[in-house]
Amino acid sequence: MSTAARGSWMPTGAARPTPRSLEIAPFAAAEVYLYLRYAALGTQFHFWLHALVGGAIGFAVLAAVALVRRRPLPSRGLLAVMGWVFLAHLYAAFPDILFIAADALHVPWMDAFALHIAIHFVPLPILTTAVVFFAALGAWTAAALGRRRLAIGALIVVTAVAGAGLGLRSPIPRSLAEVCAADPALDCSEVAAAGDGPTSAAALVSVWCALPREASA
Amino acid sequence: MPRAEGDAADGPPAAARAVGWFAAVLAAVVAVGLGRYALQPVRELEDPGRSLQQLDLLYLDEPAPLANRLDLPDGRRALVLVCERCAAPELGGADVALMRSDDPRVASAYGLLTDDGRVGPGYVLVDSSGRLRYRTFDPAPSAHGEEIRTLLEGVP
What we know:
The complex is a heterodimer.
Chain A: H1 21-40, H2 44-69, H3 77-102, H4 125-144, H5 148-167, H6 176-182, H7 189-193, H8 201-216
Helix pairs in contact in A: 1-3, 2-3, 2-4, 2-5, 4-5
Chain B: H1 12-38, E1 62-63, H2 67-70, E2 78-82, E3 97-101, H3 104-109, E4 122-126, E5 131-137, H4 145-153
Parallel strand pairs in B: 2-3
Antiparallel strand pairs in B: 1-5, 2-4, 4-5
């Protein structure tokens, strides 16, 4: 029985699993180029956010595929892993690439690209997506090392944290009142004075709670 | 029969080492990058909540507050810089009124005043009918003329 048949290391007829440095260079250079383009706009926050999301998707999918197919590495080894993860990053960052390359503004339907807009509104976005990314990387590593239970456990963490983050995310604000209601670190006394009225859920709750006091006054 | 290059080193133990090294190096690069990002001084000038920091989505559509106080022009788009000290971006001849305010009242009205009294830095975009379409913190608007020009193309 071959090692591939047991779900262990090398798939039958596999290429070398360890890429040469020259093969890695294009991916590293492309990531550095992307980072510099974001940095030129002062938007490193966006680079990290979408890189972490794309990387998490890439590794989680590769881990799931490895578990299902019982083939730890794709047939072209780590080079293919890097390629798939890089493509996942491009997918998650595609609206930003459109903005930079084609002057296309962001619009809500761009959530089709790995929730490109909505992901900004999960609680503690960089921390949350970093946890998901490292869990997905751990899942893939465990799957590639043949540690199936560990890989499945890490994928459960990925799903749970991503699900909780998305479940708790705020909606995109549609007014200054909602912007202010969502961010307690802003001094929005003039927004309240402008009389736009409460439109956020939090503001509606505060009004609802105040009603009995006003009625009894 | 001679072995192809890499065969000897690429047996199961070598492949396991390669996967381990790859994951460890990638995790280290990402962790160091995130650490550097977290310690960047410029972050102190960004949106405290981050979510709306240079979102590049025209997510607002309401009458611009304090329009009279800002003396916003009728029938013309306006870019209002809200900051104490910031240079104007290069707008490439775009037909837009460029204004500036360091008034905390204006900053507060546009959600660009932090609870510790920081005015911006940031900017707002008002369309030609006087409606507010976008507001963001931006540590260096003058360096982001390309981004602002792209946003202005979507503001009637």
